[in-house]
Every structure is written in C-alpha cells, then in structure tokens.
Amino acid sequence: MNGTFANLTASILNSTNTSLPALSSIKDYYFPQSILAFLHKPLITLFGIALDYWSILHFLAGYLLGMLILRLLGTMFSRGSYYVAGLVILTIFEAFEYFLVKNSLALPERLADTISDIIIGMLGIFIADIGMIALIIVITLILYIAWRYS
Predict the structure, then answer these.
(1) Is there a contact between 74 and 83 (Cβ–Cβ < 8 Å)?
(2) I need a labelling partner for 9 at 20 to 30 A (CA). Which of 27, 51, 90, 112 fits?
(3) Per-residue pLDDT tens over the stretch 115-128
(4) Considering the entire predicted model, what is its pTM?
C-alpha cells in the first residue's frame, strides 16, 4: 500500500497539517470526477427528474436487496412485510447517503432525487418478487432508452 489512504485518514484526523489533502478533497478521492460525470449523465427526464446511470445502480441495488430479502424472509412473513422491509432498508440507505452529502463526500441531491431513488429501488424489489423474466425485460428497456436518447 502506497500510504495514500493513510495520508488521507491522517488529514481527516489532523486538519492542521496543510501538506495533506483537505476534507473537501475526499469527494475527489473516493468519487473521481470522470466516474461522477458518467454516472450523472442523464438518460431520460421524466416529470422533471433526470434518470441517469445512478438510477440503474439504484434499480439493481433494489433488485439484489429484494432477492436477499426473499431468501431471508421468504415464507416467514407476509408479502407486505417483504415490501415494508425493503422500503425501510432503502430509506435508511438514503438517509446514510444524505449524511455523506452533508459531509461533502458526494454531490448534493434534491428531495425529488432522493424520493426517486427510493421508488426506483422499490421497483427493483418488485421485479425481484415477480421474477427473472421481468428483470430481463426491464434491463432491455433501460438499454434501449439509453441507446435511443443518447
């Protein structure tokens, strides 16, 4: 390890050392601008909310979360409990994401973006509940929209 992470950690703990990166540069360390620019590239705008590559990641995260919840909770709870558990987990994650934004680790989001992230994640959970064919259809549709409007 080249010590970069150690230097970055030291700069967080000891902000008086000016030879190390400042707290505001952590965003660039963990989220390089080239990756952020790609992830924020709008695919389509619906109702004033831009759906971008972050939306695809939120959908896939919701899908994987849905599959995990199905495996863990499967037959133990009702179908409603499955969706409530997913909604709670997605909301907690978005609160954590807000904490990161508040501490300058990511780009700020509007409330509408946060709500759309939760809705897109819930769509992923719903697709996980329906099955694999629905996932293939949704991914094909997303790729078509990305190709058509790029």
Answers:
(1) no
(2) 90
(3) 889 999 999 998 88
(4) 0.66
